[in-house]
Amino acid sequence: MSRYFLALSKACCLIFSLLLFYAVFRICFFLFNQNTFTDLSFVDFIALMLHGIRFDLSAILALNGLLAFLLLLPFDTLKYRNFQKIIGLLFIIINSIALLFEASDWIYFAFNHKRATIDILALITSKGDFLSLLPDFIRLYWYLLIPIIAVIYLYARLYKNIDRKFEKAHSNIKPEQHQLKTPLLFLLRFCILLITSALIVVGIRGGIQFIPINIRNAIEVSPPKYTAIVLNTPFSIINSWQGDRLEEMHFMPDEAARQLINPVKQYNNNQDFQKKNVVIIIVEGLSKEFTKLGGFKSYTPFLDSLMDQSMTFSNAYANGLHSNEGLPAIVASIPALMEEPITTSIYSNNHFTALPALLDAENYTTAFYHGATNGSMSFDIFSKEAGYQKYFGRTEYNNEKDYDGSWGIYDEPFLQYFIKGMNNMPQPFMTTVFTVTSHHPFPLPAKYKNTFPKGTMPVQESIGYTDFAIRRFFETASKEAWYKNTLFVITADHCSPYASNDYYASGLGRYQIPIIFFAPGDSGLKGMNKTLMQQIDIQPSILDYLGYKKPFFSFGSSAFATNEPKFMAAKLSGIYNWVNNGYQLKISDNKIIEAYQYPVDSLGKNNLVNAIDTIKEAQKAMRNWEAFVQIYNGALINNKMFVPSK
């Protein structure tokens, strides 16, 4: 066993040496970009370094786990020098490449504002772009090659020294001390191999938690602006390997695109900035079909009555079909135009300015409430990324008597808890609450069984309960001092996947939701508004309504700004849904595959695609889509979803 433990010791020594090199490279990364990381104390930097070990170990084991496994096969691997040389060569090549990518971020980070992801490989392999840029990079940053080559050379020398040390130790062990004499010894070595393999898997996953660590977990241990210090580039690239990568689009000059769709908003209306409280209520699966707006039986009597006292957008759409697509659209004006939500994509660590962050800068206090189990859909992480100062979930609620047994705390008690939280917040405040009860399996408190209309689907009874919970919320909130100085926005995260009508089960209908703006202290904010609106319009509409004067980044438009383009954007299975200029277009591979008049043919009965070249309005809508996608893809790829500070 002595020689076998030598192999185990060698593997541990090599991994530890890599951890040291990753630490050195992290320090270099900080030094090259210290202008970005201002006001970071030495103590905080050390804390970030320590937190980074978890991510370093994950990357190191992902790259070297197989080599470690081969090194620890249940026989005397150190005896076979050719085998050791192959392992050593692979080890040096793999880790030299990893360190090279790590070093590239010393400079690349200043342009990208995030750790490089798999997109850097796309840049390197792109036709002509990388080769044309390479000479300039070498000319400008030639001095980087010296420390990079030196460090890689030192690491290769270190590996050889470690290899020689263990080779010598191996040769000093007498044969009788290491010979495999019984099957029991082989079994023991095999068990050690299994245990070590399990530990490697745990290390790659970053622990034994349910979901493996990814780029976004850095925000759990660091403010957003310092997450790049916690991360390392090999981890970032590996983690984004399976991600949905966007493609840079160049349908027109960028300036021409911004003339059509300008993502930088600045509303210079005549009113002063009114620091009203802002409360956003996101109702799980609240389809338009379930309300009086849907044209069928309503299951939301309270919301229906509230619509009569509000500005109700009856022609409103979700930008996605999932909760973790709806939340970024609502509070950060980021639509879901990839095959995965931005919150789990390779762009999840991009910098963006969401509504809570913008209002935080105006001395608002902010909080996010979600009755589900903490960590559900990673909303706790996203809320921090979005700029919410505090997060309250099932753990903070701390009363399991109100747990529904499936998703979280029942809506009625949690909304009352939400009010108590706001009562303790300094004004002005901006809060968001995300309900959970109207999610499958649609549990109801025992005392409310058979209380609400059942309809043809279980979700309808559940929606009735949530509507009742919202009624109770407003009954309590209306007694509070802050109530009349508050703008309430009520909407859905997405439509329910359950629909009793064909229109709401497919096509545009599956995206239709209510959006309600209610301000009890503003009698002028009332009426049924048929303006085309979508979730990504909520953030700019709120800021426009408040009289916010500063520029900000938003993919949407204010519903109150008549001079801004009105459109709806969504994507499903590689096909874009684009509503604009009186037409609904379905676009695939940058070509229109279906075209319908909107809203005349919302059911999609008369496809005009064969006559599309003769329809100027549809051609204009297509041009606007090209501008939007060009801006959207470019902003995500280049991490430009914010207005740079002057």
Describe this structure in words.
By secondary structure, the protein is of the alpha/beta class. The protein folds into 2 domains: 2-239, no CATH class; 276-560, Alkaline Phosphatase, subunit A. It has 20 helices and 15 strands. The strands form 3 sheets. Strands 2, 3, 4, 5, 6, 7, 8, 9 and 10 form a 9-stranded mixed β-sheet that branches. The longest helix has 43 residues, at 129-171. The mean pLDDT is 88.
User: How big is the Rg?
Assistant: 29 Å
Question: What's the count of strands?
Answer: 15
* Overall CATH architecture of the largest domain: 3-Layer(aba) Sandwich
DSSP helical segment count: 20
The biggest beta sheet is recorded as: 9 strands, mixed
Percent of sequence in beta strands: 5-15%
Considering the protein shown, what is the CATH homologous superfamily of the largest domain?
Alkaline Phosphatase, subunit A
Low-confidence stretches: none
Structural class: alpha/beta
CATH class type of the largest domain? Alpha Beta
Membrane topology: Multi-pass membrane protein
GO cellular component, one term: plasma membrane
InterPro entries: Alkaline_phosphatase_core_sf (IPR017850), LtaS-like (IPR012160), OpgB/LTA_synthase_biosynth (IPR050448), Sulfatase_N (IPR000917)
Keywords: Cell membrane, Hydrolase, Manganese, Membrane, Metal-binding, Transferase, Transmembrane, Transmembrane helix
